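In this section we walk through a basic example: taking a raw amino acid sequence and producing a predicted 3D structure, encoded as discrete structure tokens. The instruction is simple. Fold the sequence below.
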Amino acid sequence: MLPLCLIIGVLMSHDTHVDNPNGVGYFGLIGLVVSSCIGSGVFALTGQLANVASPGAALLAWLICGAGFLFLALSISNVGAKRPDLDGICAYAEEGFGPFHGFVSGWGYWLSAWLGNVGFGTMVAQVLGSDYCLGGLLPGVFSDPVTGNPAVGGVIIVSLVLWAITFLVIRGVESAAFLNAVVMVVKIASILVFIAFAIFSFNAGLFTADFWGTVERNATVLAANGTGLGGVANQIVQCVLILMWAFIGVEGASVMSGRARRRSEVGSATVFGLGVLLALYIGASIIPYGVMDYADLIAAPKPATISVFEYMAPGWGGAFISWAIIISVCGSWLSFTMLPAETSSMMSEHHLLPVSWNKMNAKGAPQMALLIVGVLTEVFIIVATFAADAYTFAISMCTVTIAITWAYAAAYQIKLSRERHEPMQMAFGVIALAFQVVGVLMTGWGFLLLACLGYLPGFFFYKKARQEAGESLTKHDWVFIAVFAVFAVVSIPLTAAGIIAVF
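The resulting token sequence is shown next.
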């Protein structure tokens, strides 16, 4: 996959025309893709995939998801190059389909950003509760040893981190280039060290044993979890939502196309960046199948990466990767705290949210918007402690909400390409849209229904924003609001009955 991406990247970047002499260069664009995507997901993948798929099925899932996100990224890149006047991915829905759809796309992006912070908080609690971190001294204080959910001590520590980051941003810490650079180095270096040790410890016989998970591995998972892996197709489906979380941020280079030194390089930078991501992700999540016995791998406390590294480097590996995860996640947390505030500010400027959502304090930070995000994140961190799997719940909700934004971006790519008579670009959009719709409906339809609950208060603010702009909701708007309300109501009994597996 990576060599192919390199070839495509070279072919697509053979353009010497400079659009912006002071813009972001080629390798800077690649860095945006890689740094935007790598957060907590890569460190959780080892255990998450092992519990639902064999190495063969997991590899196929990576290739399918990689292709799906390649077409999405290229679609967003094309729109960004053709319409640099649009201020971000959330604006595509408004431009293509009207204000209401712009709100639905933007609100989904806003929900996703702070729900991602819930996932980060849960991961921090899990790591603190590890035997190779503070959990070795205070077992069970920070996270539940069985579920991995935050315990009381974990909730307290995570809450302190949450509000520390929130007030830093409120105080005007909007740019932390040095901090982001340090975090990026820690992320990449720790993953590469992990992969290097995994390659050195790799046992081909262990890896290929029941490669498709239909015999021994299936029996092992059935004995441990009460539910087997199923066929290869079922294993791939179970992987999709997990893997989609790992690609959040893939639009990093694409949304910067207007500021790129050469816009023609955005597509190839995206392809190359995806190749780098796939190499890191596959290395970190697939190679461990050949390192530890499968039964030990699926039984490892969350995140399993810690146990795997300690197995490979006894005495220091677990502690090393634990603190690397904490640094990496806190860096991503800072970015994801600023992101929803920026999104709500943009929506307010477009009259999709009330003007109060864009009110800045003396430091130039949208204080009210940040406090709203902080309170909601805090509430969901507490609620998540009662979930069957808090981390999976958080990342699933995060993924399905941002998938709404991605789907709108792909739909606008189709519309724009049709208007410009560009069949190849339109095909890219069709594939990207189909992947997002099918992926979510097959793996996360229950979480999508739950997400509709999150839209109901949003519609109140949207109505107020339209009134401020001298507009009123159309019949079209009310029909869609009614549909969202029905889905939201339906999600409640389905969750209570356990059909939507949350608690």
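Looking at the output, two observations stand out. The mean pLDDT is 85. DSSP finds 20 helices and no strands in the chain. In the next section we compare this with other chains.
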